[in-house]
Amino acid sequence: MTILLLIAAAAAVECGALTAQPSGGDYLNPADANKLRVVEAYHFTPNVESLKRGESGSVAGDLAYTLEHFPNHHRALAALVRLSQRDHTAHPPGAHFSVACYFERALRFNRGDAQVRRLYAAYLLAMQRSDDALEQLELALKSEPGDATTHYNLGLLYLKRGQFGPARTHAQQAYALGFPLPALRERLQAAGQWAEP
Fold this sequence. Notes:
Strand content: under 5%
Number of domains: 2
Radius of gyration: 18 Å
Structural class: mainly alpha
Oligomer: single chain
Distance between the termini: 46 Å
Number of strands: 0
Largest sheet: none
Helix content: 55-70%
Number of helices: 11
C-alpha cells in the first residue's frame, strides 16, 4: 500500500466512510439539483445557514445532515466554519465529525472542487495553520488557474509570510484577471515591493 492510500484509509476511519446517499449528490452537479432542493428545504434553510436555529434538531445537526448528503456543499461548509468560530469549538455539538473532517470528506468526494479548497484554506488560516492553508490554495489554483480570488488570497498569504516575489506575482495575476480590491497592491506598494506587470 502506498503512503497516500494509507493516509486516505486513516482519514476514512477518523472522518467516516463516504456512502452514497440516494437523496444526495454533488453540489456542483446540475443533475443533482432536485435532490439538493429537497435537502435544502428541510435541513439547510435560511435559519440554519444564518445559525439562528435548526430545523430538525440543532443547527450543527442540520449542517451535518446536509454535508453527509452533499459533502461539497459550499454554503453548508461555510456555515459550519462560522458555527465553529462562534461557539469556539472544532467539533460543534450535533455534528458527527469535526470541521476539518467535513472538509476532508468534501475533498475525498470531489478532489477537483476548488471552492472547497478555498473555504478550507480560510478555515486553516483562522486556525493559525498557514502552511496547510497555502497548500490548499495552491491546489485550488491547479484546479482553476484563472481564478482571481485564489491568486489574490495567495498573494496575501505570501505577503504575510514575507515572500514578496510570489506575493507580487499572484497580485499581478489577480489584477490582470480583474480582481477589484486594491489592498494587496497597496500593501505591496507600502513595502516597496510592487511593480506593474
